Amino acid sequence: MNVYLGIDIGSVSSNFIMMNNQKEIIKNIYRRTLGNPVKAIQTGFTDLMDGCEEVTVKGVGTTGSGRHLAATLLGADVVKNEITAHAVAAAQFYPEVRTIIEIGGQDSKIIIMRDGIVHDFAMNTVCAAGTGSFLDQQASRLNMAIEDFGGQAVKSRQSVRIAGRCGVFAESDMIHKQQMGFPVEDIMMGLCEALVRNYLNNVAKGKKIEDLVVFQGGVAANEGLRAAFEKVLGQNLHIPPYYNVMGAIGAAILALEKSQGSRQNSRYKGCDYIMDGQFLSSSHECKGCPNLCEVVAIKRDQDILAYWGDRCKKWEGSLSQTEKANLQVV
Amino acid sequence: MTRVGIPAGLFYHYYYPLWKTFFVDLGAEVISSSLTNRQTVEKGIAVALDEACFPIKVYFGHIQELNELGPDYLFLPRLVSVEARSYICPKFMGLPDMIKASLPDLPPIIDMVVDMSINSKGLEQEIKRVGNIFTTNEKAISQAFRHGREELCKYRQLMQTGFSSSEAIEIWEGQERLLTTSADLQLGVLGHGYSLYDRCISMNLIGHLREMGCRVKLVETCSQDEIEKAAASLPKRVFWTLGRKNVGAALHMASDDEIDGLVYLACFGCGPDSMIKEFIERRSNGKPFLGITIDEHTGEAGLLTRLEAFCDMLRRRRKIDFESNLPPYGQYACGSENSL
Ligand code: SF4
Ligand code: SF4
């Protein structure tokens, strides 16, 4: 069977999907990056290919903040930013989509779609108050697993208004409301609504949220948040079946589309390449000029595959042509 | 020879050729700090007030670097207004004082007030006063200033062709620079020159866009007339010089069909920017708009993601427009219905 792989390496989670040429998902893996993307890619990829000895990889797409790293390790045909990848995936499941609300662990975005393509977008910049980590934090303060959070929150009959402008205010306000004796589920629902307000104020910032609205990203599983969005917006939210790996799906679709339009073979380096090699990343400070760039090198056994972080591209330039070709962004 | 130090930040990007020519003609040697790099930024952040905006903090770093070179004078102009009825951001007015207060042990400062809000009389006197540090020959002073203006003019002509100020200064100093010609997108890229054209502060925004296949149009590529005409369409006159130029250029570009989209680089903590950016976004006539706000914590990865996504969006949008404009019966390979 011919398959296409999509890999989304973010700071919080690393996602892997395998898709056939009918764009059907054959397998998906969602795991935490845990601060070590090289390892996350190796183990995630091993899990993905486990028991799939019969497949032929026809194309690979990578996305997420670690997209270049993943492309270096695996060999990729498409290296795409997260916005485009998420939009492509959402449009695949919902051709009519006009708004995508995407909330992940560390970032959140809004994508406005027209006729199946991105029309406008925004990402959160500095503040984490509109992202999943906001709920994570508050859940741990309530001594509750984040997985149970949504289920508890929807039991609320009357949410408590929590000043959720930022995590610090939210915490003190929450403690205050607890002391006043409000039921915990009402407080939790209040937190969900605070996150929604933060998202609408900081990320969506007055952009028109038109139907059909797709809600995706790791946080979309949280029923409390979904209910809060529907209440505040007065609109229905659609949650795709693979809501937490949409970036990876988008990358795979783009790889598939690219391979169909070209006669070139995939840049995929093969299973053995990633599974048998020892990958190491090391960093050093370049003293070539006052920029003192923190240059990161990725090595497989003794071979240097890539450099990052050199502003003047002096280190990248020292690589051989074939290695450079592998780094090309498409 | 008397050595005058000019920090390579803020209005360096707008007036360096003028100032340098002026001092050199008066027999001084001009030294300047290196273009902003990570050390400049770190040194600046360490001493500047927390409330200052990013480019001002960086300016503090430039002054420290210059100071280490031991100049006889530091040139820190006090820019109030460079044209009638308009002003430079108030932060510039107090800048020399802010610097003297937080950085002791500086060489004598040439603090020249530039205020042309009413007329240019005051400036003429200031030029004379500053020139007198080097010579008593008044004719030589006014000649040096005139020569400076001529060089400024040459420099601005370079920028009209699409070079950023950093590049134009390099060319003006005798280096060679080429503009890439292969591009399939045209973007209007706006912002305050001392941030946008500083390759370190802007994280090389312009360079990245060019690498992504964009031809970049800047405030300086629009003519004065085009800018003022477009800016006049606002209900109230914008009296910040840079703000008005940005709005005017943006609105002018918004009505230009050749321009695919607009990018505005704003600085976190900048009062004028927070308004100007909104203005442009709301009045840009449906032209695709990408607003980017940076500060010293912004990472380059996030910037690249946004720029890439924006370019992707413009390309995919154009493809669709193109396809939906195709006549249903197909196109002629060349020529039209009335010709072969
Ligand atoms: S990598 Fe280039 S820009 Fe960075 S410190 Fe070294 S020489 Fe300077
Ligand atoms: S206009 Fe904004 S960026 Fe420029 S000096 Fe003033 S506050 Fe700083």
Give structural attributes.
heterodimer; A: 330 residues; alpha/beta; Nucleotidyltransferase, domain 5; 3 domains; five-stranded mixed beta sheet; 13 strands; 38% helix; B: 340 residues; Rossmann fold; 2 domains; four-stranded parallel beta sheet; globular; disordered C terminus; binds iron/sulfur cluster; CoA_activase_DUF2229 (chain B); Dehydratase_Activator_Redct (chain B); CoA_E_activase_dom (chain A); metal ion binding (chain A)
Strand residue percentage of chain A: 15-25%
Contiguous uncertain segments of 5+ residues of chain A: none
Largest interface (C-beta under 8 Å) = A-B, 22 and 25 residues
CA-atom Rg of chain A in angstroms: 21 Å
**What structural class should be given to the helix and strand makeup of chain A?**
alpha/beta
Strand segment count of chain A: 13
Class from helix and strand fractions of chain B:
alpha/beta
Distance between the termini of chain A: 25 Å
Determine the mean pLDDT of chain B.
Answer: 86
Q: For the residues shown, what is the average pLDDT of chain A?
A: 84
Helix coverage percent of chain A:
25-40%
What order do the helices and strands of chain A follow?
A: EEEHEHEHEEEHHHHEHEHHEEEH
> Domains counted in the coordinates of chain B: how many?
2
**What share of residues are in beta strands of chain B?**
5-15%
Look at the structure and give the CATH class of the largest domain in chain A: Alpha Beta
CATH topology of the largest domain in chain A: Nucleotidyltransferase, domain 5
Low-pLDDT runs of 5+ residues of chain B are 326-340
CATH class of the largest domain in chain B: Alpha Beta
Organism (chain A): Syntrophomonas zehnderi OL-4
Protein name (chain A): ATPase, BadF/BadG/BcrA/BcrD type
Cofactor (chain A): [4Fe-4S] cluster
GO molecular function, one term (chain A): iron-sulfur cluster binding
3D architecture notes:
- By secondary structure, chain A is α/β, with parallel strands linked by helices.
- Chain A has three domains: 2-84 and 247-276, 2-Layer Sandwich (Nucleotidyltransferase, domain 5), CATH 3.30.420; 96-239, 2-Layer Sandwich (Nucleotidyltransferase, domain 5); 279-325, no CATH class.
- Chain A has helices at residues 37-49, 67-74, 82-93, 132-141, 146-153, 167-179, 184-204, 223-233, 246-260, 271-276, 321-327; strands spanning 2-9, 13-20, 25-32, 56-63, 78-79, 99-103, 108-114, 117-123, 213-216, 237-238, 279-285, 294-300, 303-308.
- Chain A is globular, with a radius of gyration of 21 Å.
- The two termini of chain A are 25 Å apart.
- Chain B is an alpha/beta fold.
- Chain B folds into two domains: 3-160, Rossmann fold (3-Layer(aba) Sandwich), CATH 3.40.50; 181-324, Rossmann fold.
- Chain B contains 13 helices and ten strands.
- In chain B, the strands form three sheets. Chain B has a four-stranded parallel beta sheet with strand order 2-1-3-5, sandwiched between helices. A four-stranded parallel beta sheet of chain B has the order 8-7-9-10, with helices on both faces. Chain B has a two-stranded parallel ribbon with strand order 4-6.
- In chain B, α1 runs antiparallel to α6.
- Chains A and B meet through α3 and β8 of A and α2 and α13 of B.
- The structure holds iron/sulfur cluster (2 copies).
- Residues 286, 288-289, 291-293, 295, 310-312, 314-315 of chain A line the site of one iron/sulfur cluster.
- Chain B: InterPro entries: CoA_activase_DUF2229 (IPR018709), Dehydratase_Activator_Redct (IPR051805).
- Chain B: It holds the Pfam family DUF2229.
- Chain B: Residues 3-216 form the DUF2229 domain.
- Chain A: Keywords: Iron, Iron-sulfur, Metal-binding.
- Chain A: Residues 5-255 form the ATPase BadF/BadG/BcrA/BcrD type domain.
